[in-house]
Every structure is written in C-alpha cells, then in structure tokens.
Design brief:
The complex is a heterodimer of chains A (366) and B (438).
Chain A lengths: L8 E2 L4 H10 L10 H14 L2 E4 L9 E9 L1 H6 L6 H13 L5 E4 L9 H9 L3 E2 L1 E2 L12 H4 L7 E4 L5 E4 L3 H15 L2 E10 H7 L1 E2 L1 H14 L3 H12 L2 E13 L13 E7 L6 E7 L1 E7 L2 E5 L3 E6 L5 E2 L9 E7 L8 H7 L11 H4 L2
Parallel strand pairs in A: 2-5, 3-4
Antiparallel strand pairs in A: 1-2, 3-9, 6-10, 7-8, 7-9, 11-12, 11-18, 12-13, 13-14, 14-15, 16-17, 16-18
Helix pairs in contact in A: 1-9, 2-5, 4-5, 9-10
Chain B lengths: L8 E7 L3 E8 L2 E9 L6 H12 L5 E7 L1 H4 L8 E7 L6 H4 L4 H6 E8 L14 H13 L4 E6 L7 H13 L4 E4 H4 L4 H32 L5 E4 L5 E3 H6 L7 H13 L5 E7 L2 E8 L2 E2 L1 E2 L3 E3 L2 E3 L3 E2 L2 E2 L9 E5 L5 H11 L3 E3 L6 H8 L3 E9 L3 H21 L8 E9 L7 E9 L7
Parallel strand pairs in B: 1-4, 4-9, 5-6, 5-7, 7-8, 11-19, 19-20
Antiparallel strand pairs in B: 1-2, 2-3, 9-10, 11-12, 12-13, 12-18, 14-17, 15-16, 21-23, 22-23
Helix pairs in contact in B: 1-8, 5-6, 10-12
The chains are: A alpha+beta (366), B alpha/beta (438).
C-alpha cells in the first residue's frame, strides 16, 4: 500500500472508507453512530456525482475558498440530526456575505463527520474539495487551525443549526470561537459553520496538505483489514501511527480538575493497565480529546500529537465518550502535522493551551 | 465479596422455533437438562417438560425464566407500523427522512415528521405541532396501521412533546396503539426510534408468546411466575416484555455468557460463544455480562437498548483464561476447534450443556438510567449521580428486585465533548436479587 497515494475524487463508493478513516482521526467521538451521515453522503454523491479532490496548487491562485465544519457535540448531533440543507445553506450564506462565489471547499478538520460536510457542501454546489485541512485531527476550538496559524482570517463566518437559525460573525478568531461556543448552547448543541474564507494561493502554505486523501487511505485500510496485526501495521504505514501500549481500561471518569477556561467540556482520565509482566500503567488525560499519555509517570506524548484508542476485540476505534471499564485497547499515537510542532503551533495547540502543566517533548527537546 | 450465584431451585427455559430446553439449577449448580421437539403451536409438550424439570427439584422452584429471542426475530416479519418523528424541521434529504437501516424501513409502513423537539438538556427547540401529529395519526389509522411509534428529538431530556402528542392522538384516534420513545429510553434519535419501532412492531408477537409462557408456567410449576431474559443479561417481568419486547432481543447471547460462566463455577470470566461459523467474545463480571447501551446492532440498526457487549473474534488469541461454549448443539465441533487453538488457556463447556437455558436461571432484575445532566461543580455532580443511582434502584425495585438487595453495578460519568463545561452523560446500571441474598 502506498502511504502517500493521492485520491483524485470522492464518489459514492468511497463513502465507507471516508467514514471509517474519518473516525480514526476523531479520538473523542469514534464509534458514534453515523449511519445516517453515511447514507446521506452516498445519496448526495449519487445524485450530484463524485467530488474532485484537488491540491491547492492545482486551483487558480485567485480561487475563493472556504472551510466547512461542525462546531459542537457529536452526542448532540446524534440526538438532533441535520435536515440536509445545512451544507448548501451555510456556504451560500457565506457567499452572500462575501459578495462573491466560492470556487472550492476545504475541510476545517478532516475528522469524523467534519470530513463529510465539506464533501456534502461541495457536491451540492458543484465544487471541488481541496485535499487539505486545518487541523489534521480534531482540536476543540475553531481557531486552533493551521489556517489561523498562517494568519488567515477566520471570519466572516456563517453558521446554521438544525432549527435553521442562520447567523454571521465578523470578529477576531478567538472572539469568533467564544461567540460560536455561546450560541451552541441555544442552537441544539451543534452548528455547521462556513469559515476561513481565503484564496487558493494562501492554502498552499496555510493548509495541512493531503488530509482528505489520508483519511480515505486509512479508511480503506480499516474497512479492508480483518486482523489486528494487519491494522496496526497498516496504520503505521498510512498514518505513521505507533502503539504506545496495549491493555485493559481499569480507571475512567472525570478527573475533578479544572481545565483551561477557554476549553469546552471537563477533564477526564482514562487509565490502561498493560497485561504483561511489568504491567505498565498508561494514564491518559483528556478534555474533549485525549491530550496526554503518561506511562509509569513519564510523559510519552502530548497534544497536538493525536492519541487514540483501538478496541482490540472489535478492531474499531473507540472514542472517549464510548470507552468503558474493562475494554481491551491499544493506545495509538500519531505525530501531528509538522506545523503543530513549531513554537507558534505548540503555543496554540500544545499542552499549555489546554492548561496542562507539562511541555510537549518537542518543546523540551528544543 | 465474591459473587454467589442465586440459591434455591430455578428453571431456565430456552424456547426456539421447533424445540425447547429446560435447565434446572439448584444453588448455582446445573442439575438437570431436558429437551423436547414440538411443532411450535401446542403448549402441552412444554407444560410436561416444565413439570418434569420441576419434579426433579429438591424443593419448591423459585422461578422460571424464559429466553425467547429466537422467536422475536427476524423482526422484518413483525407487524408493520407507522412512525412519527418530532424534530425542529422536517428533513429535506430523503436519506435523512428515512431511517438508515433497511430492516427498519421494511417495518415502517408509513412515516411522518412534525415540528417540535428539545435539546439534550430539555430546552424546547421548536413548539410541537399537535394538529399535524393528529393528522399523521389519523392517516396512519386510515391506512390500516394499528400502532404508531413516536420519537421526539431530545425526549430523554424532556418527554413533554411525546406526551402531548400521545394525548392529542389518543383523543383523535383512541384505538391506535402508541409507543413513545422516552419510555424505551436511551440517547440518539435514530437509535431510540429503532428501539421504539421494534417495540411497536413486536408487541403483538410478544403478547402472544408471553401469554403462552405464563400459562405454561402456571400449569407446570406450583406458584410459578414467568420471568423473561433480557438482552443485558437481566430478567424482566411478563408485563415488561409485553410492553417492551425490544428488551428481549439478543437475550440468548447475554444469558449464554452467564450460563458458560455458571457451569464453569466462576462468576467472572472471559467467554467465547460459538454460533454457526462465528465466534463472539464477551465478559462476565460478578455474575453479570458486561453490557452497554447503544451497542446492539440488529440488521444494521443501532438500538438504544442496553445489551451484552460481544465482539466478533476470528481466531483464538492466547491471553487470559477463557471459557469456550457452543450456543447450539450443532456448534459443538466449532467450539472444540476454537478451544483447541487456545491450548491450556481455555476450558470447553460440555457441548451437551445448553448454556442459554442454564444462563436464564442466573438472571436477576436489572435497571438502567442513561441521561445527560448538568453539574457545575464536582460536589453537584456527586449529588446528581447519587440521585440517579437512587432512581435506578427505585426502578429496580419496581422491576421485581427484593428491597435491600439492590447494588449499583456501574455508574459511568462521561464529560460530553465540545459542549459547555459541566455537561455529562451519566449511565447507571443496577441489579438486585429476586431472592433474599444480597
């Protein structure tokens, strides 16, 4: 399997791989039921045709682009599914706000259903999707993106809900995040956003390249492999994933600690005990996402690197909201995109941004 | 303290399309097993089977627990029903208007969507359109449907819209049988809708089956009361299974885990069940199968109903000691092969033992509560959690557990990602005893 093979387009036959791969990069909510998103995406692609995946450099440099993605809770969206017109609505609203048509759509983050929404929006409006994203994983805040790191303005932003509220925001990136977060509380727990309007030339340097292709490749691996070792080896090849350890979840629950005030949700802890002679304890600190892995008291890896759990029995990813005591899991680590290991990247999305009193190994190592 | 299997004499009855197996278990030890072929219609053979098992008991039989899951499937052969979904606005996409499961679509003969719904925390998102709901109910009745499954967004947070719809619909169409999703419980609109539709569709079949089991139990066992195994490895009353037959789905696997552990004289074990050419691994902990809500998959449907967690396993893996058991007598060779692959790390349950029938006797009443709550401080979270644990134990008592025997089996608190600080999902599972032991 070619670890970097590019995927030229997303069609109905790619939806299963897209869903499975997107789940891998959504460590907190993997395992949530997204069957309706699967059938919806397939239906739209069958009706509208495949969506081309293009690299930023393949577009005319002046092509207006915009990101699409959900802000909010997966539990909320499972309880309150979309009506189906949100992707087109939110993008059309942004076009109206900008006074010009958008020529391509990019993902805010190519993970879980946020890998699907750009495809849905692009298909409905007859546009390509740019093969990139702004996170390379899920980060909790809409301003924790490589787009923001590169100085791209987050707004104008438009957002819509399942109730069909439609709002627009013109604010700084941190203020826009706070405003959206406040609105979620009355919008049903999630809103679909169109944001980061920019030109294609800016994405050449501001975006994390190849994210959508990577999601599909990982998804093809996960849907095709039937044995544990094959999956682990394949994830190493396609996503540079390594197994930090394997064992049983022996402790789980809110840590009682206060997280960073800017972050939604509350901190929680997952402890995995390895079932081997030295019985290492892997302590995972989490808030929205898995943030830190500490093995026998020593920091192994930290956000912005991705930590996720592979259920060793079902061979499916196990999200933070679904993991249970006694589950047998592999703890996997995937290095973040290089931009996140820069000083600015670590400041925006490193441990300190989550109120954690540790330094990322890359900070310690200089 | 180590878990002790129930004391006294209990009978487990596994009912299949063409046969039945009765297992007599005394003080946690299987002592007798009888099997009978029958045509599926007559009750006399089953009554005789039960009487014979009962006669071999050293004392009075405390209870009879039936396992009916094979007779509740395939659900697509159940009665077709109408479905009403209450959401803030109707889906514009066909794919989102329908349920993603093909099986569920075959069960729903008529579907309507009306305006309404709440968020996870019970805040109203749109006023409910009661007139539209009444029109949909009338249309369903006019089309010949006898039952309507009603599922509102956010009904776990607030059941108000479902209740208001029920009141209006029963005024308009009093003969329509209603199933409301908040009574089935669980989070996730589609998962709850699937469980609610199945409940409505299976009620006629369950009513017939449960009635027969009650009659047979009354005729076969002195002061006999019929109980029924549930998908989480617990037991429910006849009334409960009649009202919520979805709780009986997949019960065979859950009690199969229990039966395998019981015949191996352990209450905590890893168990692999062989069924056909498939193997599934599960855990038994302190006399209960490891179970969770939102894991049941039936014909592509995810159901909100709690179920024993079983993971498919393709090949033996040497790890902790494992019990291997055949679900049916025809699975004996497969179980032997699997156990041989595990070597000394595994034990094989005598394939002649019907672990499902045995496991029925190990079941006890259980109760679940699965809610989203708000708590701004750890102290408030503790208070809310304690309150929910108390509520779950109250549900347990109403489910037949003897007062004083309740135990909270698990009390999971999960912060909800990407929502405001202080938002948690709390899932409580409690179990009690029919008899007096704690």
């Amino acid at each position: 399997m070619n670890g970097d093979a590019r995927v030229p387009e997303i069609g109905p036959d790619d939806v299963d791989a897209l869903v499975a791969g997107s789940e891998f990069f959504g460590a907190s909510i993997a395992g949530s039921s997204v069957e309706n998103f699967r059938t919806w995406t397939r239906e739209v692609l069958e009706r509208r045709g495949p969506v081309p995946l293009v690299e930023p450099g393949e577009l005319d440099a002046d092509t207006p682009c915009a990101a699409v993605g959900i802000a909010g809770s997966m539990t909320a969206i499972v309880e309150l599914p979309p009506a189906g017109d949100e992707p087109a609505t939110v993008l059309t609203a942004l076009q109206n706000q900008l006074g010009r048509a958008v020529g391509a759509v990019m993902p805010m983050n190519a993970a879980t259903i946020n890998a699907l929404f750009p495809v849905l929006a692009a298909a409905e409006l007859g546009l390509p999707v740019v093969d990139c994203d702004g996170m390379g994983r899920i980060l909790p805040l809409i301003n924790q993106t490589s787009y923001a790191l590169a100085g791209l303005p987050l707004t104008p932003l438009t957002a819509t809900s399942a109730v069909r509220d439609l709002v627009s925001i013109d604010a700084s990136a941190p203020r826009a995040e706070l405003l959206i977060r406040a609105m979620l509380n009355t919008a049903g727990g999630w809103m679909l956003c169109a944001l980061y309007p920019t030109e294609a030339r800016n994405l050449v340097t501001a975006a994390i390249p190849g994210s959508m292709s990577r999601v599909v490749r990982v998804g093809r691996l996960l849907t095709g492999a039937t044995d544990h070792d094959g999956i682990v080896l394949g994830l190493r090849e396609t996503a540079n994933a390594t197994v930090l350890g394997s064992g049983r979840v022996v402790e789980l629950g809110p840590s009682g600690k206060r997280g960073a005030p800017t972050q939604p949700a509350n901190p929680t802890t997952v402890v995995v005990r390895e079932e081997r002679a030295d019985s290492r304890l892997i302590r995972l600190e989490a808030q929205n996402e898995l943030l830190l892995a500490v093995i026998d008291g020593v920091l192994a890896t930290a956000v912005p690197d991705l930590l996720c759990l592979l259920d060793r029995n079902s061979l499916r990813m196990k999200g933070l909201e679904r993991v249970g005591l006694g589950d047998e899991v592999d703890v996997l680590a995937v290095p973040a995109a290089p931009v996140w290991h820069s000083p600015a990247g670590l400041e925006l999305a490193g441990p300190a941004a989550f109120g954690l009193p540790v330094r990322h190994p890359k900070e310690r190592d200089g | 303290m180590d878990y002790r299997w129930p004391v006294g004499s209990r009978i487990g009855m596994r009912l299949r399309h063409d046969s039945a197996t009765a297992a007599l278990v005394v003080d946690g030890s299987p002592t007798d097993q009888s099997h009978v072929q029958f045509d599926g219609a007559g009750e006399r053979a089953l009554t005789t089977l039960l009487r014979q098992s009962c006669a071999r008991a050293p004392g009075e039989v405390e209870s009879v627990a039936w396992e009916l899951s094979e007779l509740l499937v395939p659900p697509e052969h159940a009665e077709r029903v109408a479905a009403l979904r209450i959401v803030p606005r109707p889906p514009v996409s066909d794919a989102l208007r329908e349920h993603p499961s093909p099986m569920l679509r075959t069960l729903v003969g008529q579907r309507a969507t009306v305006r309404g719904g709440h968020d996870l925390f019970g805040m109203e998102l749109a006023p409910v359109d009661l007139d539209a709901a009444a029109r949909a109910a009338r249309a369903a009745a006019d089309a010949g449907f006898a039952a309507l499954a009603v599922t509102a967004a956010g009904s776990a947070g607030s059941p108000d819209h479902e209740r208001a719809v029920a009141e209006r619909v029963l005024d308009a169409v009093p003969w329509l049988r209603l199933c409301l999703s908040h009574e089935v419980g669980g989070l996730g609109l589609l998962q709850r809708e699937a469980a609610t539709v199945l409940t409505a569709a299976l009620q006629p079949r369950a009513t017939d089956l449960v009635g027969r089991c009650e009659r047979i139990t009354a005729a076969g066992v002195r002061r006999g009361v019929a109980w029924f195994a549930s998908g989480d490895g617990g037991r429910v009353s006849a009334e409960r299974l009649r009202s919520f037959p979805v709780t009986g789905l997949e019960a065979g696997n859950a009690v199969g885990l229990l039966g395998a552990a019981m015949v191996s004289s352990t209450a905590t074990a890893s168990v692999v069940l062989a069924a056909g050419d498939r193997f599934a691994a599960g855990q038994v902990r302190d006399g209960l199968p490891h179970a969770a809500s939102d894991v049941m998959e039936l014909g592509g449907m995810r159901l909100a109903t709690p179920q024993a967690v079983l993971s498919p396993v393709s090949a033996p893996a040497v790890g902790e000691p494992t019990i291997v058991a055949a679900v049916n007598e025809t699975d004996a060779a497969a179980a032997r092969r699997f156990r041989a692959g595990l070597g000394s790390a595994a034990t094989l349950v005598d394939p002649g033992t019907d672990v499902v029938a045995v496991g029925c006797t190990a079941t006890e009443p259980t109760a679940w509560l699965d809610l989203v709550v708000s708590a701004d401080t750890p102290a408030e979270l503790r208070r809310v959690r304690t309150m929910m644990e108390d509520r779950t134990c109250t549900l347990l008592a109403s489910g037949g557990a003897r007062p004083g025997t309740e135990r909270v089996v698990s009390s999971a608190v999960v912060p909800l990602s990407f929502l405001r600080s202080g938002s948690y999902r709390v899932v409580i599972r409690a179990s009690g005893r029919l008899g007096g032991q704690a």
